[in-house]
Amino acid sequence: MKAAVLHDYDEALSNPVFVTYEDVPDPAIKGPNDVIVRIGGAGVCRTDLHVIEGIWRSKVDLALPHILGHENAGWIEALGKGVTHLKVGDPVICHPLITSGHCLACRRGEDMHADESEFPGINVNGGYAQYLRTGARSIIKLPETLSPKDVAPHTDAGLTAYRAAKKASRHLLPGEFAVVIGAGGLGHIGIQVLRALCAAQIIIVDRADMALKLAQECGADFAVKADGSEVDEVLRLTKGKGAEAVIDFVGEGDAVAKGLAMTRNAGFYYIVGYGGKIDIPTIDMITSEKTIVGNLVGTYPELIELMALADQGKVTLATREYRLEDANTALHDLHHGKVRGRAVLVP
């Protein structure tokens, strides 16, 4: 099969070629619960850039050469002997983790905390290819209204945004405020989820005019330019108190400090983006009673819930399609802020 393959790390992201389009062996069924998916769409994520930078080397056992791609959807191509609920040709979306289902975390539905797991695109070969090996536990059948290439980024970007926004929606009441920092690939999804699940007023903060416009199209009530005065503007909109919930899809640079400053006393700061650090004096934590919540990718049931919203037209993805052989162009466009929403590779 054809695949876009990572051969070398690039810590500065300065090389013109990140991945090489080449022939590689087809993935094979290894166990009775394995599934081979013919890829219909593979999302291009900023995490892919972090893998190329080498940031994930300290977190996972990753051997090069490696096939990126952890946001995958397509059609069933082949099934292990133990898989009876799927058939060849079924349109499907893949939860990003492959797990056995035997450990306590899996039985509680928290597969992302499984004792043992494979993460296609992160520690095993992913979907920047024509075919992908995954597990039957990871597969969700798609309704007829949804095409694999149109929903593939939901498997990480959408699911992660959904998980954070769902947590926030549980305590947001009418008349309260939610701030979303970053209206890019995750943020534009988070806005729609908040709009679907609660009645809070939504303030979006971003430095890019393209992202702010997209945010307003997705249902944001207020768009604030991240030009150095964003904290003051959010405090003005919230009458000096800050927002009950702040969801930070950036998580680096000065976004963290500003996100905490936008969070009102007894409010919740949800951190999704990564690369920075949270540094807050303990006395400030005590006196403000703010809650800081980490957010990993969501659960299998949450991906089903998100597909229900997508099926109803309440959450849609802004996507830009690239051919699989143009994976380098997609990655460079993402790196340089040229992608509106999410990029998707289509074999």
TrEMBL record:
Q: Which cofactor does it need?
A: Zn(2+)
Query: By its UniProt entry, which InterPro entries does this protein fall under?
Result: ADH-like_C, ADH-like_N, ADH_Zn_CS, ER, GroES-like_sf, NAD(P)-bd_dom_sf
Q: Which CDD domains match?
A: arabinose_DH_like
**Enzyme class per UniProt:** oxidoreductase
Q: Which residues form the Enoyl reductase (ER) domain?
A: 11-345
Please give the superkingdom of this protein's source.
Answer: Bacteria
Q: Which UniProt keywords apply?
A: Metal-binding, Oxidoreductase, Zinc
GO MF terms, alphabetically ordered = alcohol dehydrogenase (NAD+) activity; zinc ion binding
Q: What is its EC number?
A: 1.1.1.1
What PANTHER family does this protein map onto?
Answer: ALCOHOL DEHYDROGENASE 1-RELATED, VACUOLAR PROTEIN SORTING-ASSOCIATED PROTEIN 11
The record's similarity note reads: Belongs to the zinc-containing alcohol dehydrogenase family.
* Annotated protein name in UniProt: alcohol dehydrogenase
Q: Which organism is it from?
A: Acidiphilium rubrum
Organismal lineage: Bacteria, Pseudomonadati, Pseudomonadota, Alphaproteobacteria, Acetobacterales
